[in-house]
Amino acid sequence: MSTLISAVVALPLGLALGLFENKITRFFRPLFTALTGLPPVIAGVVVFMLFSNNGIMGGLKWLYSAKVIIIAQVLIVLPIITSQIYPAVEPIRESYLLNCYGLRMKKSQIILQLLKEVSFSVLAATLAGFGRAIAEVGAVMMVGGNIRFKTRVMTSAIVLETNKGNYTMALRLGMILIVISLILSFATIYAGRRGSHD
Amino acid sequence: MISLKNLTLNIKGEYLFSIEDYTFEAGKKILLVGDNGTGKSSLMKCLINHFPFMEGEIISRGEIVYQPQEPYLFQRTVRDNLKLSGMTRQEMEEGLKELYAEDILDKRVRVLSGGQRQKTALLRSISKATDVLLLDEPFSQMDEKSTIVSQRLVDQWHREKADRVLVMISHDVELLEMDFHEKIILKDRAFFVEKLNEL
Q: Which one of A179, A185, A197, B166 is most buried, by most CB atoms within 10 A?
């Protein structure tokens, strides 16, 4: 869910950052790139402070629920997806727009076609974001806790099993996570290659 | 028809040229020549309002289609590109056959040669253009045979309607077998017009 929300926000954002060249985009491009290195625990602290009883969103009583986990993950994943979309648009911008204007394409056509042009890069960025989201544990446990059937995710379950000394179970869960991560990594590499070749 | 009045091109302080009063008249085929960097492509970009470094007035009647020097082909196949210009399957096949390129219809654009890319772009531009067609070195990567058939195709487009305007940039003027009505020369930061054939 967090990847889906991030992708929906990151897509127009990434396209806009790639398509336009002005002071705003020149400021936000390096900012989003820098935020990809944001320690997840910082995102966790920010979300925790916002949604704790004394925080400005405390009245919602969302702390230790799946909702805040999603919010924390969006903060982590959004810059990752955004910062991978705009570099796909930037190199083709001038030539692409010149040809579109030359062919008298409508604005809606220009945007739709651009989505097709960078579709594999968008897919690769989304997969990379998903990979980061499922591997996240610090921020997730900080804001969501580790409540069975509510806020326990794969990574927090591994932490729990390890703390209990149940290393076999922790390793089994870890293996599943590794397999998922590997599949995602290969899919990302494949999508990225298709994107750069097409 | 496109009229230019007191047009000045000035890229960040570097003066290119100015045109006091000139009209690309309906029905004419105009050749635009000049050395590299004299502003030929910039002038074409002005005509489609995609050049920020200009002052003056441009009045145009009719739709202008412009094909840049480096045509960008959209994902993924030649067919997709031609479809985007509203061509039917029959038109695509006939057009490509005329250009000796019938085998590229379902090819991905990334595997096309430079000449094949230009043929695709030319067909796309021609099918889209109704009134004014601006071509920036459209045959530069084509072989001689392809250049000749492409010129025929452009000529054919121009003849279809009496008031169509064609403006073309070319360095290989000796290869051109088209009867242009005027030649615009950009030289020494100035704009000259040479009459070639009567309309």
A: B166
Q: Does B107 touch chain A (CB under 8 A)?
A: no
Q: What are the residues facing A54 on neighbouring strands?
A: none
| Whether the predicted pLDDT of A159 surpasses 70 | yes
Q: Which residue in the set B45, B110, B128 is minimally distant from A103, CB to CB? A: B128
**At which residue do the structure tokens 């290195």 appear?**
A37
Tell me how far apart the alpha carbons of residues A2 and A73 are, in angstroms, rounded to a whole number: 6
Written as six digits, the tokens of A51 are 């949604």
A46-56 mean pLDDT: 84
Mean local confidence (pLDDT), A52-75: 83
| Contact flag A197-B128 (C-beta cutoff 8 Å) | no
Total count of domains within chain A: 1
Query: Would the pTM count as exceeding 0.90?
Result: no
**B74:A98 CB<8 A:** no
Q: What is the ipTM of this complex?
A: 0.90
Residue B168 reports pLDDT greater than 90: yes
Taking domain B2-72+114-195, whether its CATH number is 3.40.630.30 is answered by no
Chain B residues with CB-CB distance to A98 below 8 A? 45, 50, 68, 72
Domain ranges of chain B: 2-72+114-195
Q: Which residues contact B59 (CB under 8 A, 6 or more apart)?
A: B2, B3, B5
